[in-house]
Write a structure and sequence with these properties.
single chain; 412 residues; alpha+beta; eight-stranded antiparallel beta sheet; 7 helices
Length: 412
């Protein structure tokens, strides 16, 4: 054997040793790049799971503490006006929580759907990778390393040998990359399963939270109705209750009159500046409700249902389910959209020519002061806020500073 041949053989042995070391203990740049991308995906999934866990932990702490709330309300019970205002505010907060929880349910159902798709895709990828690796392992077992050795020994020159060694290195790199990707996919599948189960738990707990808050809401509404009835029918409170009721009605009318005065003053200013003034054109009002079950109290003098004394009722009460749409009876400008312990959430609309309509006890208001509304616009929803013991709309009409029968303007 010549010196040149011996030298080539030595180089061959060294190259094979280097290649084998790289194939068993080093990861080529491509494999490392693939691994880092997969690691980022795994870290992102772990972060999603962490945030979901935080959301789950926050659910219970965000629910209404009914017993604590009742204790706070108890301190206000001696003053009916303060008690009603505090209770209405609490009811509004609970309704807001219910809306937020329902929005979370919709979002979580979408997240569940997305995670399910992620999981199915990851499982399909894992099965495909496992199938490919199984075939590859079977092939290696059947052929051993004979083909690789033959490939290297078949080199016609040292340069050719190096090229073939580079090919072998790439094959080993592919095997490393395939294994790393399979491991990462399997880990990702397990994380998707964990996230899916956690999101299902959150969805179930959120739905339970809605039920709890709904029960809280119903219990407080029932308590409010009963407390008002008890207060007004208690013989010991009778005289005081009548005085308070009359004072509330007087305050209510003063509020309405003050709003009218402010509007009329503004109109005079507009007229002085030669601007246009809203004028009622004698059209027929639209009925102010989408539907109602009955007229629970008529306009005019009546015996108060709980106080037992004759009182003037300045509007018509239409009993209707909570949330029923309340309509603007006619074109006009909103001069008030506010809350008072007597009227609850209320809207007052100026129709021009000294004509106003008032809508009381709403559960929600959809307009603001200075909004321009047209006949039939939805302005609020039926409720039982303020001094009320059941869901209804109290609908009043005022003409030139005096309450008049709403039936004079409604098409019957």
């Amino acid at each position: 054997m010549g010196k040149k041949t011996v030298k080539i053989c030595q180089m061959l042995c060294v190259a094979i040793c280097v290649m084998l070391v790289m194939g068993t203990s080093a990861f080529p740049a491509e494999a490392m790049s693939m691994s880092s991308i997969t690691s980022d995906s795994i870290r992102e999934k772990e972060e999603q799971i962490r945030k979901a866990q935080e959301q789950k932990d926050a659910l219970k702490s965000g629910l209404t503490d009914l017993q604590k709330l009742k204790g706070e309300l108890e301190a206000q019970r001696s003053n009916l006006k303060n008690y009603v205002a505090k209770l209405d505010a609490s009811l509004a907060e609970i309704e807001q929580k219910i809306e937020e929880l329902q929005a979370q349910i919709a979002a979580k159902e979408q997240e569940l759907s997305d995670t399910q798709v992620e999981l199915e895709n990851a499982i399909a990828r894992e099965e495909k990778q496992q199938e490919t690796m199984t075939e590859h392992i079977r092939y290696i077992y059947e052929t051993g390393n004979v083909q690789m050795v033959e490939l290297l020994l078949g080199a016609e020159s040292f340069s050719d040998f190096l090229n073939r060694a580079d090919f072998v290195e790439k094959v080993v790199s592919y095997e490393n990359r395939m294994w790393l990707d399979f491991k990462a996919t399997r880990e990702y599948v397990e994380l998707c399963k964990e996230q899916l189960e956690l999101e299902k738990e959150i969805l179930d707990e959120t739905k339970a939270g809605v039920e709890t808050e709904q029960k809280n809401l119903e219990e407080l509404i029932e308590q409010k109705n009963q407390d008002i009835l008890n207060y007004e029918t208690d013989i010991g409170n009778k005289e005081k209750a009548i005085q308070e009721y009359e004072a509330d009605i007087k305050a209510e009318e003063e509020t309405i009159a003050a709003l009218e005065a402010a509007v009329e003053a503004e109109k005079r200013q507009i007229l002085a500046n030669s601007g246009k003034v809203l004028v009622y054109d004698n059209g027929v009002f639209k009925f102010p409700l989408a539907s109602f079950t009955k007229v629970s109290d008529e306009y005019g003098m009546r015996i108060h249902p709980t106080l037992g004394v004759e009182q003037f009722h300045n509007g018509v009460d239409f009993a209707a389910p909570k949330g029923t749409a309340i309509y603007a009876a006619y074109d006009g400008i909103v001069v008030a959209a506010s809350y008072s312990a007597t009227m609850g959430n209320y809207v007052m609309i100026d129709h021009g020519s000294g004509l106003y309509t008032i809508y009381m006890h709403a559960s929600a208001l959809y307009v603001q002061k200075d909004d321009v509304v047209s006949r039939g616009s939805t302005i609020a929803a039926v409720g039982s806020t303020g001094r009320s013991t059941g869901n209804h709309l109290h609908f009043s009409v005022r003409q030139n500073g005096t309450y008049v029968s709403p039936w004079n303007y409604l098409s019957q």
